[in-house]
Design a protein that fits this description.
single chain; alpha+beta; four-stranded antiparallel beta sheet; 10 strands
């Protein structure tokens, strides 16, 4: 009986460890999928710089400090990106305008419409119209997806 109890406790511990590791492995696998799908760190950097130029008409000069957050923006299982060029003309007293990139089924990335300067941006577990809400400026405001763009709630 004692051996059975020890075996059950050990199996429970292994299960708990596996559950935590599985979540971390999935995150690392999703990040690696950017590289495996043909996107190198340099290409990701170049994509972000190009998106600032195309979306916000901002020309970034080197060296560029880009903060990249790997997040889930929509309800699929692919990791998406929130990128913020910290030392750019896209920054002002209200913060910086981030670029939101969502992975597409074919492996490419598309830009999500977001044009607000923020000092901080986090993904909320709450979902509106198949996209996670965004918490900006340490909870001072929440942005919701209206089907075409993020807007203040």
């Amino acid at each position: 009986m004692k051996r059975l109890l020890i075996a059950i406790v050990l199996m429970w511990i292994v299960y708990q460890i596996f559950s935590v590791l599985q979540s971390e492995i999935q995150t690392y696998t999703q990040r690696a999928s950017l590289i495996l799908s043909g996107t190198t760190q340099k290409e990701l950097h170049d994509t972000i710089v190009a998106e600032y130029k195309n979306t916000h008409h901002v020309f970034l000069s080197e060296p560029i400090e880009i903060d990249v957050q790997y997040v889930y923006l929509n309800t699929d299982t692919d990791i998406d990106i929130i990128a913020t060029a910290k030392n750019s003309p896209a920054c002002g007293s209200g913060g910086c305008i981030p670029i939101l990139l969502v992975q597409e089924n074919y492996g490419g990335m598309s830009t999500v419409n977001f044009s607000y300067a923020v000092k901080s941006i986090e993904v909320s577990p709450t979902i509106t119209n198949s996209m996670h809400n965004l918490i900006i400026n340490k909870g001072k405001k929440q942005m919701v997806w209206n089907g075409e763009a993020y807007e203040p709630e």
